[in-house]
Amino acid sequence: MPACVLAYSGGLDTSVILGWLQDEGWDVHCVYVDIGQPGEDKQAILKKAQDCGAKSARIVDVTEELCRDFAFPVLKAGAKYESIYLLGTSIARPLISKVMLQVAREVGATAYAHGATGKGNDQCRFQLAAEALDPTVQMIAPWRIKAFRDRFPGRTELIAYCEEKGIPVKATSAKPYSSDENCLHVSYEAGDLEDLSVAGVDVVDFTMGVSPQEAPDKLEEVTVGFEKGVPVSINGQKLDAKDLVEKANELAGRNGVGRIDMVENRFVGMKSRGVYEAPGMTLLYEAHRMLEELTLDRDLMHLRDQLSPIVAEMVYYGLWYTPKLDALFAFTDKAQEPVTGEVTLGMYKGNLSARRRSSPNSLYDAEIASMEGGGSYDQDDATGFLRITGLPSRVQGTVTPRSY
């Protein structure tokens, strides 16, 4: 029998897909990619796959790699999709595909199956990553196969199939939305959130922190240390990437930081509404930007700001393993060399504010910037500077005067 690997979560969809693949004549190797999903009994999920006839089942923990090699490079680039979304799900998908192909090579599988729908972004991220890493891989996306959709048009048919096959599932009523979790964030979409008249923060049961209204009525300070643009410490304690993100989640979450509600443009062309919470990454992004204000040259910072949306778009679309993104990350690595130092922020009811910042590479010179008399800046120099800068405008104004 041919073999395939299945990105397996143990939920209703992938449980059905496991059974369906077996019905179609595949030996299925289930892979639960651990990217820091909280509150799940991973061993129970593994046992369920084995009990349902999987040829093999395993858990692969890549949480540290997700933070260190995927989230932090995107953070260094200052990339936010459409200026808001911190890309928590987008970042994880190419790593999941990498793991799936590594397992496929180990077990001799020729195909890779996943449960993403034909409407969303995840199908793009899974497949584009897989094809870049192994162009020979056969992708199986059941929700893009008409015969599968005809057989399982809705949740009722999925549950009935599980009952017929003896597959244990929680056959409860559907949640008013769907969610996707990892250590970087939680995303919420679909269900009641498709109605734009509904306030997303009122519908969603957030899990990573309290609401701003419930946060302490007292400002809490936190200090984040960076080396070459990479966060390395919190409150003076050096931490590995995973532990640092978890600590940032804890501190920012209890202060109501990091909730957004947005309508975004999906890669496939439609607009969709998403609610996100990313307390720790919101804190790290803000601290990183504050340190860049001290350490990056003006023109370099402005160029980086022009490139950040390009990085965000490529990550969102799933174009991780591409020469273009490799080159953009290489630029970022060079640009971030001076971004070393510490930033202290104040957290208060969902807000972040600068308290203190320092860097051995600071370009801020109080004597030059001072509004007081004296200092090392000669204001007379500005006259010549402005005469030269204004020359093209004076010539243009003589030739084609503007009305005013």
TrEMBL record:
One of its GO terms (molecular function) is argininosuccinate synthase activity. It is an enzyme of class 6 (ligase). The keyword GTP-binding does not apply. It is found in: Cytoplasm. L-citrulline binds at residues 85, 90, 121, 125, 178, 187, 264, 276. Pathway: Amino-acid biosynthesis; L-arginine biosynthesis; L-arginine from L-ornithine and carbamoyl phosphate: step 2/3. GO terms for biological process: argininosuccinate metabolic process; L-arginine biosynthetic process; urea cycle. It catalyses: L-citrulline + L-aspartate + ATP = 2-(N(omega)-L-arginino)succinate + AMP + diphosphate + H(+). PROSITE patterns: ARGININOSUCCIN_SYN_1, ARGININOSUCCIN_SYN_2. Residues 177-395 form the Arginosuccinate synthase C-terminal domain. L-aspartate binds at residues 117, 121-122. Its main location: cytoplasm. Keywords: Amino-acid biosynthesis, Arginine biosynthesis, ATP-binding, Cytoplasm, Ligase, Nucleotide-binding. Its EC number is 6.3.4.5. Residues 4-168 form the Arginosuccinate synthase-like N-terminal domain. It comes from the Bacteria. GO terms for cellular component: cytoplasm. ATP binds at residues 7-15, 115. Belongs to the argininosuccinate synthase family. Type 1 subfamily. Homotetramer. This is Argininosuccinate synthase. It comes from Alienimonas californiensis.
